């Protein structure tokens, strides 16, 4: 078995159901979940507009300057990050869209650059590294193509660890998937077909099947048609009270009504890695979307860990630090790698 902090044994993956039950992550009732859209159609459109800010930089403005004081650049204050990391076992969690890849008009073309792939690969050489995305796990893997990572798709409802050959562990079935919403799969597929049919008359609308959740992208929809799109989605979901609607950046997301999100996925992965109650671990989570706030909040409430929001605009967030865009994320990952190499060499010289 390899040394803890590089790739610890994750045999816990072989019994996810018992873990899920022990945590009492039960379903929540329709209409009661935070972010659910139990509202009239005009309120849907207002919320769609509010959750989709124009992506412009605001440096130099009073609002941005005040915000950056409380959420400083993780690159410009890198020493603060490494001071917190000294003597700790670091685990890195990454969102995909807007964090590792740029936000693009066509979600099927959100490709990761070769330079970013290499940065993530190098990070995974030194730290357990996971990608937690709203996309399907298979789709994220097709984009990234790094078997040494942990992948959590569908907002953490579909988790799989690296293959045993990648981990070089002596025991445990690390590839056993964790899928707390598996019973909803037939319903999700049924709603997917219904949404494809209902939205085909709205130019620019795109429905994406992320296996355990669905995304209705409206980035390319004329704002005048947002109300019509919201009405079509509302009409379909009215027949499925066990599904809820949440929002991301110019995307409506349909999920099963269970108390599970990226924050719960982060907790599950930490426990599977053997770090659940370890004060010697420092999780670092980097993400850009509203759905990443669940993970930021977990780290804040734990009092251990670093949340980094990727944004060029001031946003309300539970993250402690900020980065502007994927290129800055890549720079941060490479600096973490160099810092780890430097500290390892210094330790070996002692």
Kindly describe this structure.
The protein is of the alpha/beta class and 350 residues long. The protein is 37% helix and 15% strand. It contains twelve helices and eleven strands. The protein has helices at 16-22, 41-50, 62-70, 78-85, 114-126, 137-144, 164-167, 185-199, 226-237, 262-272, 293-302, 326-349; strands at 89-94, 129-132, 150-153, 158-160, 206-209, 214-217, 243-248, 251-256, 281-287, 306-310, 321-323. A seven-stranded mixed beta sheet has the order 4-3-2-1-9-10-11, with helices on both faces. It has a four-stranded antiparallel beta sheet with strand order 5-6-8-7, with helices on one face. Strand 7 (243-248) and strand 8 (251-256) form a beta hairpin. Helix 2 packs across helix 9 (226-237), helix 8 packs antiparallel against helix 9 (226-237) and helix 10 (262-272) packs across helix 11. The radius of gyration is 20 Å and the shape is globular. The protein starts with 15 loop residues before the first helix and ends with a helix.
């Amino acid at each position: 078995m390899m040394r803890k902090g590089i790739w610890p044994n994750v045999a816990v993956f072989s019994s996810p159901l018992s873990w899920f039950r022990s945590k009492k992550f039960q379903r929540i009732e329709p209409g009661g979940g935070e972010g659910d859209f139990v509202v009239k159609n005009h309120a849907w459109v207002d919320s769609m507009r509010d959750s989709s800010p124009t992506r412009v930089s605001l440096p130099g403005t009073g609002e941005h300057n005040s915000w950056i004081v409380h959420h400083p650049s993780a690159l410009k204050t890198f020493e603060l990050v490494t001071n917190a990391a000294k003597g700790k076992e670091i685990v890195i969690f990454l969102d995909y869209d807007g964090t590792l890849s740029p936000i693009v008009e066509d979600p099927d073309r959100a490709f990761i650059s070769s330079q970013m792939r290499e940065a993530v690969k190098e990070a995974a050489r030194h730290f357990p590294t996971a990608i937690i995305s709203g996309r399907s796990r298979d789709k994220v893997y097709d984009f990234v193509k790094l078997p040494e990572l942990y992948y959590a798709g569908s907002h953490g409802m579909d988790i799989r660890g690296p293959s045993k050959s990648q981990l070089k562990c002596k025991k445990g079935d690390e590839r056993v998937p964790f899928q707390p919403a598996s019973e909803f799969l037939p319903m999700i597929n049924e709603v997917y077909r219904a949404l494809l049919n209902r939205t085909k008359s709205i130019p620019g609308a795109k429905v994406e099947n992320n296996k355990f959740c669905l995304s209705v992208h409206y980035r390319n929809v004329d704002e005048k048609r947002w109300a019509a799109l919201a009405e079509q989605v509302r009409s379909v979901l009215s027949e499925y009270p066990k599904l809820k609607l949440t929002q991301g950046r110019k995307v409506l997301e349909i999920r099963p009504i269970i108390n599970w999100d990226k924050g719960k996925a982060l907790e599950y992965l930490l426990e599977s890695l053997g770090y659940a109650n370890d004060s010697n671990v420092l999780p670092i989570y980097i993400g850009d979307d509203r759905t990443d706030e669940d993970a930021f909040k977990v780290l804040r409430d734990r009092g251990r860990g670093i949340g980094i929001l990727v944004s060029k605009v001031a946003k309300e967030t539970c993250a402690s630090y900020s980065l502007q865009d994927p290129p800055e994320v890549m720079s941060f990952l490479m600096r973490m790698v160099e810092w780890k190499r430097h500290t390892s060499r210094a330790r070996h010289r002692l």
